[in-house]
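[step 3/7] fold_predict: job queued, chain A
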Amino acid sequence: MSGGVGREDPGVDRALRLTVPSELAETAGAVLMDLLGPFEEQPGRDTTTLVFYPASDPAIGEPLPFGDVLAALPAELRASGRVQIETRDVSRDWVDGWKDHFRPIVIGRVRIRPPWEPALESAAPGGTGLERAASDGAAPDGAGLVDVVINPGLGFGTGLHATTRGTLQLLQRVPGGRAAQGQPLGPVVDAGTGSGILAIAAAKLGWGPVFAFDNDPVALISARENVEANAVQGVVEIDQADIQEAAAAWFAGATVLANMTLAPVTALLRRLALLEGPWSGGGVEGARPARVVVSGILSGAQEVKLLDEARLHGLAPGERIYEDEWVSMEFAPAAGGHAVSGGAGGGESAGARPRGA
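[step 4/7] structure written:
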C-alpha cells in the first residue's frame, strides 16, 4: 500500500480501491466522484469495493494523500472503522479500461447502454441484438427491445448489479395479462431512484405516470440528467423526498419499485401499510399500491425478515429471483388485505436457488 493516489510513471495508471460497507457504497461513491472521478463497483456480500482511476495534476505530479480521501467521506463512515483503501498500478489507459466495464446489457425487453454506445437502428425507441440477455430474455433477434441510456459517471445504478437486473425482470412480468391485451400498464413509484434507471425503463415499457424519488441530491442530479437523455420528462417525475415525505397519492394503485437495502425497504412497507384505504389488489382502486417489487435484499436471513414484515402488513409473496447472494422479491395484496399466516410461500423463478428461505 502506498501513501497516496497518483501516477508517478506516465506509462502506468494508478487505481484506488476503496472497500466500504455495501449499504454505504452509493453515498461514498457519490461523495468521492468530484475528488477522484468516475468509478466502477465490485459488490460483495457485506462490502462493496469502489475502484477509481484518479490522475494526479500533471503540473504538480503529486499523489492525492489517503488522508484527503478519508476526510471527504461522511463522518459515520470514517468513524465506523470499516473503510479499507489501497492502490494498485494498472497497465492500460484508465479511461478505456473504465469504459470497458459499461457495455450494453439486455434484461428482458430493456437494452441499457452508456452514452458512448450507439442506439440500435430498429429501436422502439431501442434496438435489436443481444449483448446479454436475462433468463427470460427477449427474442433471439432482439425484436421489441426498448433503448435506455444511462450515464454511469455518478455510479448510482447502471444495470450491472444483480439487484437492478432482478427488479427489471420482475417489473416486466406484468400480472393479469395487461401487456398482452395492450392495456395501459398503470402508475409506477421508484423509491430510492438513484440513477433513475428503473423509472426510465418503466416509462419506456409503457408504464405511467412514473414517480421517482430519492433523498440524495447528488443522485437526483444523475436521475434528472438520465431522464432528459431518454426524453421521458413527460412521463417521469423526479422529486427529492425520503420515504416518509413521499406523497401518498403516488402510491394509489401503483407498482412500487424499491431497490434498496433491508432497513429502507422495511420502512417503506410500514409506510405503505399506514396509507388509508384498502390495498388496491384485484383491480380495485385504493390508496395503497397494487404491487411491490423489492431488491437489495440478501438471500437467507434478510429475506426471511422481509417476508415476515410483508405478511404483517397484508402483503403476500409472489415470485422471487435469486442471483449471487441477492434476492429480488414481488409482493401483492393478500386476500382481503389481511396479514398472511403460514410459510413463506410464493413462486420462484426458473433456476432459483433459495438460501435459507
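[step 5/7] annotate
Residues 217-229 form the longest helix (13 residues).
The radius of gyration is 21 Å.
exit 0
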